[in-house]
Amino acid sequence: MVYSTPEQLSFHPVAGHTVRADFEGGTLSSDFGVLLLRGIDRQIGLTARLAAAIHDTRHPSYIDHPLRDLLAQRIYQIASGYADGNDANSLRRDPLFKLGVERPPLAPEQDLASAPTFSRLEHSVDRKDLYRLTEALGAHFVASYPEPPAAIVLDLDHTDDPTYGQQELVFYNHYYKNYCYLPLLIFEGLSGALVTACLRPGTRPIGAENAMILVRLLAFLRRHWPRTHILVRGDSHFATPEVIEVLAHRHRIDFVFGLAGNAVLLRHAAPVMQEARRLHQQRTALAQAHRACPPASSRLYDEFSYAAASWAEPWRVILKAEVMVAGDNPRFVVTSLGAPTPQWVYEEIYCARRNCENYIKAVKCDLHSDRTSATTFLANAMRLLLACAAYVLHHALRTQTLQQTALAHAQPSTVILTLFKVATQVKQYKDRILLHLPSSCPVKALLHRVTALLALVPLPVLNTS
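User: That's the sequence. What structure does it adopt?
Assistant: Structure tokens below.
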């Protein structure tokens, strides 16, 4: 008989007792949150919709892991904080991840997929699959509304995805001072819901490219919501003739874009800027007279009609004439909106797009959409969409189940640390599975609420045709 000493961890004595730890706990897991993700996924039908979008070329006789199970496992891993595909080599035997993919938790023959399987999946998708996946994300966004909304806001933004290898279509971007991809992410600005996303090379996007994406997206949304008012919002690199031409004079569609300053715009702004300087001097002198802190800035708003040489017609331009301690800070916005005041357009409509940065941060930093280290561009595009799907699950959990709780506005990383990472012992009997959580669990009441809500909501009948 061969005897072996189990690997142990050593600690300083406590109250006269030696302290040792080993890895012989057996059927324990630290990822109770997988079951919450499974509950949300079964309600909204996300992974089933995504699986229907991919043409599975594998021979049925050699399939151990159906495509929906593969996507569910990978997306649940990302949504639980495991960014790398290599994590599957350990998590494939985790009892809660097996439960999440609806397999018996303690049966060795029911182990989940390993990292090489996910690598083959990521490298097997083609351009048509990726296009259908982006459409599937858009279809889920539409299906998340019980009825057509009166208005939505489409926030467009690109974000840098630094790369450190020889991936396809990686280019040096002078603005970010790095070799990178520059993916486009589109969110609904009022709710934070992800509409769709696509990976693109690291070069600066041109107007024709942005216009092509908008044409397809708006046509897709119009097929489902013919009477919904759509506001398209973005920073100055979207204010190109091609994009404006796509949006101009379309029924129930408006736009608000930042506008880069030039000599003509600064000449229009000069009188208002001079008035803003006088206002700032007066406020500063008044503060000094009362021995108060001087104002950090003074702002005035104005508007005028302007047409760049490449535009087909003039549009309304909003001016924010701001004077700060460091100097003048004029800002311009071009819009098709006619009714709101200049201050309202700039502060309440345009500046509200800063929330899009928080949504991108959640996808990029919390759910690691920037793990695009595969060799091929298409495989990296697949990884981006998997991270976006994990964001969709977190958004649905937060907005549908965690409302009126302390986590109602939490970032995915906070939800993962607070709600998902709960130690669980799994026991399987002939007719039931028991999960034992810690008696001193600090989120016991919250878990009672969440699981009760997930159990009450009926499962949808998903049409993936």
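The chain has a mean pLDDT of 93.
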